[in-house]
UniProtKB/TrEMBL annotation:
GO terms for molecular function: carbonate dehydratase activity; zinc ion binding. This is Carbonic anhydrase. Binds 1 zinc ion per subunit. Keywords: Lyase, Metal-binding, Zinc. GO terms for biological process: cellular response to carbon dioxide; cellular response to oxidative stress. Its cofactor is Zn(2+). Zn(2+) binds at C43, D45, H99, C102. It comes from the Eukaryota. InterPro entries: Carbonic_anhydrase, Carbonic_anhydrase_sf. SMART domains: Pro_CA.
Length: 211
């Protein structure tokens, strides 16, 4: 898969307004079949069990994990996962699941290391987020960063030609999740004005950050 769009504008991403919703157990109904219907994109250091979060069978998921749930770098492994799942398996859903307290986010606030470059976009988003929310406590600011980051990744995934075509042609859905280790549960992020924007009052975003 050829990536055709860069990471979203970080200033716009940091200002995104969205709702933070619970993940209903029937968000993605189980088919009970041995066929992947979900591409799950997660972080390597998150403690989540995908099948428990969605209440589906292991056979229904194709799991792709890396450091930070980063798809927008367009690396061969991530691009292949999208191409394989969308074009060949014709999955019905892609879930990009970030999480609070990610090691990558700590790296992104410190001096460059051997993996500098992998999180370059995240570092830029962190700078925009910090500038936007200078008075917020670090924990809350970092939670907001985790939320806007996963939504930026979702925006990037949706913009890829093969994904955009599947969304238009057969109703592929791309979901933004964040996992909370403390709560042992995921939340779902829905952009204000998006397909489910009217479901709940927006409670996330720079002026309404939820701890
Ligand atoms: Zn992580």
């Amino acid at each position: 898969m050829q990536s055709t769009k860069m990471f979203p504008d970080v200033h716009r991403a940091a200002r995104r307004r969205y709702s933070i919703l619970p993940v209903p157990k029937d968000l993605i109904p189980s088919t009970g079949e041995s066929k992947a219907q979900i591409l799950w994109v997660g972080c390597s250091d998150s403690w989540i069990t995908e099948t428990a979060a969605l209440d589906v069978l292991p056979q229904e998921t194709f799991v792709h994990r890396n450091l930070g749930s980063v798809m927008s770098n367009g690396d061969l492994s991530s691009a292949s996962a999208i191409a394989y799942c969308v074009d060949l398996l014709e999955v019905k859903h892609i879930v990009v699941c970030g999480h609070y307290d990610c090691v990558l986010f700590k790296e992104a606030s410190e001096a460059p290391t051997a993996i500098d470059g992998w999180y370059e976009d995240l570092s830029r988003l962190r700078a925009a987020n910090d500038a936007l929310l200078p008075d917020l406590e670090t924990v809350q600011r970092d939670r907001h960063l985790a939320e806007v980051y996963v939504q930026a990744e979702v925006e990037w995934v949706r913009s890829q030609p093969t994904v955009a075509k599947a969304i238009a042609d057969r109703g592929l859905k791309v979901h933004a999740f964040v996992f909370d280790k403390e709560e042992e549960a995921c939340v779902r992020l829905v952009e204000e004005g998006g397909e489910e924007g009217g479901v709940a009052e927006a409670n996330g975003g720079p002026n309404g950050v939820v701890a």
